[in-house]
């Protein structure tokens, strides 16, 4: 793995992802996904414990809430956009990470 000297962005206060392949949903075109600072309500129906977000379906539910879009719209993400979103939001859902998504 190549050591990239560029620091990772701090997304703890929110962020956005410009989609490579826009989503058509509900008569609208979604060109980017935006989220704000993490909120506990994103996970209000998940059990407490390690590995709470244990499936891609769980991740998509949380991502839809975080980005304030319908879950079926998130389900239309293309492969590249999905993996980019997992890379950006995934660390915030790791119980072993701090509020910036960095490992403790």
Q: How would you characterize this protein structure?
A:
- With 104 residues, the chain is α+β, with helices and mostly antiparallel strands.
- It has a domain at 14-37 and 53-93.
- Helices cover 26% and strands 20% of the residues.
- The protein contains three helices and two strands, in the order ββααα.
- It has helices spanning 56-67, 71-74, 79-89; strands at residues 14-25, 28-36.
- A two-stranded antiparallel sheet has the order 1-2.
- A hairpin with a 2-residue loop joins strand 1 and strand 2 (28-36).
- The longest helix has 12 residues, at 56-67.
- The two termini are 22 Å apart.
- The model is unreliable at 1-9 (pLDDT under 50).
**How many beta-strand elements?**
2
| Overall residue-averaged pLDDT value | 78
Lateral arrangement of strands in the main beta sheet: 1-2
How does the helix and strand content classify structurally? alpha+beta
Distance from N terminus to C terminus (CA atoms, Å) equals 22 Å
Shape: globular
Summarize the amount of helix as a percent range: 25-40%
The secondary-structure element order is EEHHH
Tell me the fraction of residues in β-strands, as a range: 15-25%
Query: Radius of gyration from the CA trace?
Result: 14 Å
Biggest sheet: strands, sense, closure? 2 strands, antiparallel
Low-pLDDT segments = 1-9
Which secondary structure elements does this structure contain, and how are they paired or packed?
Blueprint: E1 14-25, E2 28-36, H1 56-67, H2 71-74, H3 79-89
């Amino acid at each position: 793995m190549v050591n990239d000297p560029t620091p990772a962005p701090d997304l703890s206060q929110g962020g956005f992802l410009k989609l490579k392949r826009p989503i058509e949903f509900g008569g609208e075109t979604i060109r980017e996904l935006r989220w704000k600072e993490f909120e506990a309500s994103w996970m209000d129906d998940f059990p407490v414990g390690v590995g709470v977000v244990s499936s891609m379906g769980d991740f998509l539910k949380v991502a839809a809430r975080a980005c304030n879009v319908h879950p079926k719209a998130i389900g239309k993400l293309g492969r590249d956009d999905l993996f980019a979103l997992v890379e950006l939001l995934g660390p915030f859902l790791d119980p072993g990470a701090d509020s910036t998504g960095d490992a403790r």
